[in-house]
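Hi V.,

You were right to ask for the full record rather than a summary. Here it is.
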Amino acid sequence: MGVAGQGLPIVAALALWAATACVARAEDANDYPTSARAEYVYGCMKANGETRQSIEQCSCSIDVVASIVSYERYVTAETALSMSQVRGNLGVQFRTSEQANSAVNDLRRAQAEAEVRCF
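Predicted structure:
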């Protein structure tokens, strides 16, 4: 086996490692379930018109949001936004929670970035 033949296993191992790293990053970027993405696009389209263009823009928007905010953080923000509308003590707890406000602010920043990129 020549010198070139000895390097082949190393090259194959590096290629396998690179492919695995790319898949891991793709999984991280796509950790939002399809139903969450569909719900976001549906709400976005209701707010921006139900046209073919809004499908494209809203699909782009959730992709940008997903690239910036983890799904766990997204769920926290969505829950906080929903629960902050509840009247009484329970709603107050969500409106005044530092953790909830931080998650909502992260989501709003991601949505602002999506607006710039997609609309």
